[in-house]
Amino acid sequence: MPYGVSSYNTYQQQEGNPFRTGRDPGFRVGLDSKIGVTNNLTLDLTLLPDFGQVEADPSEVNLTAFETFYREKRPFFIEGSSITSFNVGLGDGDVGNDNLFYSRRIGRRPHGYPSLEEGEYADVPAFTNILGAVKLTGKTNNGVSVGLIESVTAEVKADIDNTGQRSTDVVEPLTNYSLARVQKDFNKGNAIIGGVVTNAIRRLDDTDMDYLHRNAITAGVDYTQYFKERNYLLGTSLYMSHVEGSAKAITRTQMSSARYFQRPDAGHVELDETRTSLSGFGGKLQAGKIGGNWNFLLMSNWKSPGLEINDMGFMRQADWFINVLWTGYNFTEPFSIFRSLHLNHDVYTISDFGGNLLNAGYEWNVNANLKNFWNAGIGGGYEFLNTSNTILRGGPSMHLPSGWRLYSRVSSDSRKKLSGSVRSFVNGKAEDVSRSYSLGASLTIRPANTLRISISPDYSIRSDEFQYVTQRNFNDQKRYLFGKIDQKVLSMSLRINYTIIPDLTIQYWGQPFTATGGYSNFKMITDPKAAKLSDRYHEYTSDQVTREDSYYGIDENRNGSYDYNFGIPDFSISEWLSNLVIRWEFLPGSTAYLVWSQSRDYFSPNGKFEIWNNLNELFTDKRANDVFLLKISYRFGLR
């Protein structure tokens, strides 16, 4: 299936910037191919793929030290993803996304950005071009599942202009990504054994990107055994990682938010700025009863401090050991108003590899399917112990107050022409340290079998006394600065799917988004492990902190001059994202896409939640970024 794409991008012109002229036309060609190797194995090949018709990621504000996980939306990587996956997480929360293969690493946004002098402008591509990729997936007749991926992404150069003089700077090296995943069924599927190897190799010669790994390898094996008619389960996986690079690259890895080897109170790890490689390991164990009405599982998950899988996988945090004991009871026979009812409880502990107990808590939930085909659920949890190795972002660990959370949801019969759902979430910490609330809803209308309209508003409020701001040095000592944040986020998603005829469809998605954060009550951490919360920090008095036009000045010793300062962290962000796709399959397997994508953004440092003013500025402050795209692919059926 060769394809051609013609695009036209319009945006706000920037005076003096030769790269921001207000319009950019474009054209590219490529090839997609699907080959049936056998009845059960499929080979996918793509050269210079284009994913312009793929929906944008939703807006968000991330104030943590950790990367956001986004789900894959590109068809080439979605197909067969259940085979290529090697999950190393636990549960369905943030930790559940950890995986040795995170396909969004391939074609990612470039790592680098050129260092510009005054008067210089740069044109930096938003994504890395995939030169080509090959994928073999399927399952043979004798129960062997195979997933192989080989992909090469181009070296990306930023164009730099200095009063007409042009130069380039490499912002992403030529990279090769490889994955091999194999699983074999035994004893009619009651035993499954598998393995995986991934490898990312970067060509860093003649670049200034020696802060990246030159070579990154992960490997793992997994085994699942079912007993007594699949009522009992024993599953385990073991895996390792090894990364190589310059001393700068490995130092950067040791100091990343996943591990913070520089922590002064971490006796089991040590920052070594001369290392040129780093290795680690991890594993997962699950055992219990999964059949019948009463179920239970004992689950363990561990990741050593040196584990690093983020070159080709996804991992939020290493250096931890979590144990979970879960039990649940299922009412599978209808009674009263219920078609089925599910009760779940678990207790958990989290430690680091130094033997320090960090977290201990309890969780519960009840999920009900009603006879009228409505669904409802309620759940919550309590964290008895909370010690964070990451909140000071390289500083010592800190004791935090215990926390709690509660959520609920109700959804109506999704088979109806009009259906909807409501969900709520509230959590907080003891001693009034933090509190947050969120409320969401969705409404789906299907006036005809060919038309589906969904709208989903969400609103959240958060107040937290310990929002990280920055770090400063004073008198040869670190100052870890925090503030109270009052944050509000409002968003709404609108989705329309209309099938005119089976071969002609229209899809639309749009999202207005506004978020604000106002900071106050600035403080520095003094004794992060003190018994009393009030002894763990010092809140600056009015004669110690002064707000200037663009920064806060801190006079810690009250001698009349600033000892250090930091930028005003308040923010007010508004964004608009929309995507309209008209898809016409004019011949079997041959498709034309007409796409209109629009994005807008507005930023103000006032931190005020003024919805109508923010939205007005969003749509009037500057011109939108519009992308018009026509993509045509033609299928040649070869025999």
User: What class do helices, strands and sheet pairing give?
Assistant: mainly beta
* CA gyration radius, whole angstroms: 27 Å
Count of runs of 4 or more consecutive helical residues: 4
Number of β-strand runs: 32
Largest sheet at a glance? 24 strands, antiparallel, barrel
Mean pLDDT: 95
End-to-end span in angstroms?
Answer: 14 Å
Any low-confidence stretches, pLDDT <50, length ≥5?
A: none
The proportion of strand residues reads over 45%
How helix-rich are the residues, as a percent range?
under 10%
Shape: globular
Could you characterize the architecture of this molecule?
The structure is a single chain. The protein has 639 residues and is mainly beta. The chain has a domain at 69-318. It is 4% helix and 57% strand. The protein is built from four helices and 32 strands. It has helices at 75-78, 81-84, 247-254, 611-620; strands spanning 2-10, 23-36, 41-47, 120-123, 130-139, 144-153, 156-162, 165-172, 174-186, 191-203, 213-227, 232-245, 277-289, 294-303, 320-331, 338-351, 357-370, 375-388, 398-399, 403-411, 418-429, 434-448, 451-474, 477-501, 504-525, 537-539, 545-547, 551-554, 564-567, 571-587, 590-604, 625-633. It has a 24-stranded antiparallel β-barrel. Strand 27 (545-547) and strand 28 (551-554) form a beta hairpin. The longest helix is centred in the last third of the chain and has 10 residues, at 611-620. The radius of gyration is 27 Å and the shape is globular. The model has no long low-confidence stretch (mean pLDDT 95).
